[in-house]
Amino acid sequence: MELLKENGYWLLWSFIALWVVFFYIRHKKRIRSFLLGSATGLTSLVLLHIFGGAIGYAPTLSLTNILFCGLLGIPATVLLVLGELFL
């Protein structure tokens, strides 16, 4: 059962990554879209780090979390929270 949860979690991460890449590719202004997505993802990570105690999860500002949220934006932050709360 644990293996199924872990594989499902990685499958969900892969799906989100592909969805975000296709989202950035479809825009006419790709770099601007990527920078805006990165900024919102990093901002949401920092806000969650500061105010996350209210929901019971305040992620650390580790290099891995910063890279995930910087590359994938807000969907990565949401996945971090869902992964911590439900797995």
Account of the protein in words:
The chain has 87 residues and is an all-alpha fold. The chain has one domain (2-86). Helix content is 80%, strand content 0%. It contains 4 helices and no strands. Helix 1 runs antiparallel to helix 4 (74-86) and helix 3 crosses helix 4 (74-86). The chain is flat and about 40 Å long. The model has no long low-confidence stretch (mean pLDDT 86).
For the sheet with most strands, the description reads: none
Radius of gyration based on Cα positions? 14 Å
Q: What is the terminal-to-terminal distance?
A: 12 Å
Overall 3D shape: flat
Secondary-structure content class:
mainly alpha
In total, the number of strands is 0
Low-pLDDT runs of 5+ residues are none
Structural domain count: 1
Write down the overall mean pLDDT: 86
Number of helices: 4
* Beta-strand proportion: under 5%
Which percent bin holds the helix content? over 70%
Question: Helix and strand string, N-terminal first?
Answer: HHHH
Layout of strands and helices, then pairs:
Elements: H1 2-26, H2 30-51, H3 63-72, H4 74-86
Helix pairs in contact: 1-4, 2-3, 2-4, 3-4
